[in-house]
Amino acid sequence: MKRVFLIVLDSFGVGKMPDSIEFGDENPNTLKSISKSSYFNIPNLIKLGLGNIDGVECIKKTDTPMAIYAKCGELSRGKDTTVGHWEIAGVISNSPLPTYPNGFPSEILNEFTRRTGRGVICNLPYSGTEVIKDYGREHIETGDLIVYTSADSVFQIAAHEDYVPIDKLYEYCEIAREILVGEHGVGRVIARPFKGEYPNFVRTSNRRDFSLAPSDTTLLDALYQNGYDVISIGKINDIFAGRGISISNKTHSNKDGILKTIEYINSDFNGLCFTNLVDFDMLYGHRNDVDGYAKALSEFDSYLPEILSGLKDDDLLIITADHGCDPGDISTDHTREYVPLLVYHNGIKAQNLGTLESFSFIASTIANLFNIKLSTAGKSISYLIK
Q1: DSSP run (H or E) holding 264
Q2: Per-residue pLDDT tens digits for 315-339
Q3: How buried is residue 192: exposed, middle or buried, by Cβ count under 10 Å (0-12/13-18/19+)?
């Protein structure tokens, strides 16, 4: 295998895991929720075998699936972007990353204020769109930064671009990242810039994530160290703190990420192209927008024929997800769900692998295909691909 295209449909879960209640999720099912929308139209994912995955009853099955298909459980103790992607890349997080349902402790915020020279307002779990509506005017009047969190392990800083330049906001995030280590080592510090006039503030596309570095060697590290290309599209570079990346491509939307992926399909390289399509999660899952999520998945599906037709005989396509974020759920948080797995290359023999216990089998499989060593919990299925 010369090239692998790994596409993460951020938050596209396919039903609850046995331990979902431990994570505050009673019966989440992202796919089921969006399948009820009149905008839901995914004939190409169905052709690959999405509806044939064990436990998926809300969409059609096909008698002639084109891909190897399965659903994957998560061994890591979390349901967020960071630990989900790390597990896809082979690193299991046995302890959950810290969360702050009551806000961050004073010692963290005092040090942050000392080093940035700015005060802090909010310091609560909050919706990203609601927090700028409720605190945006105070931020402009005082110069204080809006700091907030969510059910995930995140320290988020919102600031108006006209009053806090983007580079300065990123600098503040880097300071927070330096502070938030050890017991307070949150998964991500996130810059959340916005613009506009009160009360019609809107978030801009200049979001940036400052992630905790992975705790062990990842698939990306191993590929990079062995001379392979590792191309990131979307949030991947941020999620892995820039480690093991040859070329990083930022994106402004799902469509932008899809088109950049297609550009690499039509180019020449040797290694991994790793894409994250974040709009599913950021714009639709967290906002309980069922129709928006359904439209976004349908848009991705519409590009699948172009993606598949561009693959060469020594290319592999893997479509999966990192967690759930059921837009039909009562909360706006991530949900602990199985994720889908679709594995395709020209001439592959389709089959059902049932339920795989860990996302990390993806890392193990890709490592084997490139003949590199990587220690991880997942078992390789490369013997089904070669």
Answers
A1: helix 254-265
A2: 999 999 999 999 999 999 999 999 9
A3: buried
Q: What is the mean pLDDT of residues 79-93?
A: 96
Sequence-distant (6+) residues with CB within 8 A of 285 are 11, 30, 293, 324, 325, 326, 327, 332, 334
Place of tokens 């349901």: 79
Nearest partner of 190 among 233, 126, 285, judged by Cα: 126
With contact defined as beta carbons under 8 Å apart, do 376 and 363 qualify?
Answer: yes
Domains with residue ranges and CATH for the chain: 3-96+212-384 (3.40.720.10), 106-209 (3.30.70.1250)
Q: Tokens for 113, please give them.
A: 């204020």
Structural tokens at position 288: 């309980």
Portion of the chain with pLDDT greater than 90, in percent: 97
Output phi, psi for 26, to 5 deg: -80, -50
DSSP per-residue string spanning 213-234:
PPSS--HHHHHHHTT-EEEEES
Q: Kindly state the average pLDDT of the residues 276-288.
A: 96
The one-letter amino acid at 385: I
Tokens of 275: 């894409």
- Closest Cα to residue 340, out of 21, 132, 31? 31
